[in-house]
Amino acid sequence: RDETLREAPATPPHNLSEYFKQFLFPQDECELHNFRLSFRQLQWDKWIIAPHRYSPQYCKGDCPRAVGHRYGSPVHTMVQNIIYEKLDASVPKPSCVPAEYSPLSVLTIEPDGSIAYKEYEDMIATRCTCR
Amino acid sequence: PRARGRVVPDKLSGLLVAPEDTARELNPLLWLPTGVRHGYALLPPLLKVLSDRGPQHWESEAPRLQPDSRALRYMKRLYKMFATKEGIPKANKSHLYNTVRLFTPCSECKHLHRDLRKGDVHSVDLHFNLDRVAALEHLLKSVLLYSFDTSVPISSPVTCMCHLSAKEHDSSGQVCPSVSQSVAFSPHLEVRKRKWVEIDVTSFLQPLIAAHRRNIHMAVNVTCLVGDPRQNTKLENPLHVALVPPSLLLYLNDTSEQAYHRWNSLRHGRKNPQRPRQRNRPPVDPAGDKGNESLQGKRASRRR
């Protein structure tokens, strides 16, 4: 930080806010977003009897530079960020992806007319992270 | 295998499984070209649809056989017991099954329905096609589900005996009963509470399912005795209702990758890295001050 300040040109106060913006968390920071769909929209309601609505959720947003403490990201994520910023911009920035999921129970009519109740793993995103 | 520490079914054996078994395991309707088979093998059948065919496919797909309305009503009730409105499995389920399948007997079954008035028994010949049971779905419990019309009052106590016998087709095509089992139940108590009577046939079906038998052919005789079994009892049909052929309910534990394993999530919860680790306190030395001394020593050494 001292180095950065030493390097930084003496900037008049009104640019200072610009200068510090780079350390703030991005406005559209990586976070979990709501999304609800009904199987009728997918025209699957003929064979999926329940639930009527399904909220898979999704992760979207920019990953801040200091991801460690906020997202539990591994150190590799910050290394990848430095590579992107200082060495090779063709290396992608870390992405905002789901870190945890919860299961979903579905009741379906099978092709042979039998009825199945099944519980599937990892069908609803519950937490996001940067990787 | 995923780092979740879950007992992952051995994918290699999955790869070694004969194609027709794999086909049975993966929804045969969604059978993928060989090139991408294994890449999609882990996608829940629900989503293979999405990855494999667009919505237009569903219009052209052969119409699904419509299930029996009573069976549908039963399964909707079961769904409400096991999951919330949003479809989240309820945590209070104490058992290990993550799959329940209900089969109604095939339509072409003969229906031996002799006159019940003369105290005869109700006998029916059932044929269940269990092709939908995947190789990785292990049977935990199975019941025959008789639905009753509860508007009929049942006066005196009734005990019924259900006799099951599986029919094997031997080489000459002759049908010979191979496994048989008798199960007692008292509809008097059961029917009053709800429209269904469940007859546990787990021990009867277990060997057949374990042997990957998918065409189950069985004869079911229900004999009911009215009044106190110790006195003279009459053979008659106290229920005065036409017993419709029963459905077969299988409670299964799907051990595949995409199925939800509640025991695993419980175990996973215990190993949750976020949970603060128990700080290991130095063992309290029962030797009193000598113990303190050593504690002093320990503190000094730790400080060093």
Helices, strands, pairings?
The complex is a heterodimer of chains A (131) and B (304).
Chain A: H1 2-7, H2 13-21, E1 31-33, E2 37-38, E3 48-50, E4 53-54, E5 58-60, H3 68-71, H4 75-87, E6 96-109, E7 115-130
Antiparallel strand pairs in A: 1-5, 2-4, 3-6, 6-7
Chain B: H1 11-16, H2 19-25, H3 37-41, H4 45-52, H5 55-60, H6 69-82, E1 99-103, E2 122-129, E3 137-147, E4 158-169, E5 175-185, H7 187-193, E6 196-200, H8 202-210, E7 215-226, E8 234-235, E9 247-254, H9 262-270, H10 289-303
Antiparallel strand pairs in B: 1-9, 2-7, 3-6, 3-9, 4-5, 4-7, 7-8
Describe the structure.
The complex is a heterodimer of chains A (131) and B (304). Chain A has helices at 2-7, 13-21, 68-71, 75-87, and strands at residues 31-33, 37-38, 48-50, 53-54, 58-60, 96-109, 115-130. With 131 residues, chain A is α+β, with helices and mostly antiparallel strands. Chain B has 304 residues and is an alpha+beta fold. Chain B has ten helices and nine strands. In chain B, a hairpin with a 7-residue loop joins strand 7 (215-226) and strand 8. The two termini of chain B are 44 Å apart. The A-B interface holds A 42-44, 46-51, 53-55, 72, 102-124 and B 27-29, 44, 46, 49-50, 55, 58-59, 62, 64-67, 71-72, 75-76, 78-79, 82-83, 85-89, 98-104, 129, 131-132, 254, 257-262, 265, 274.
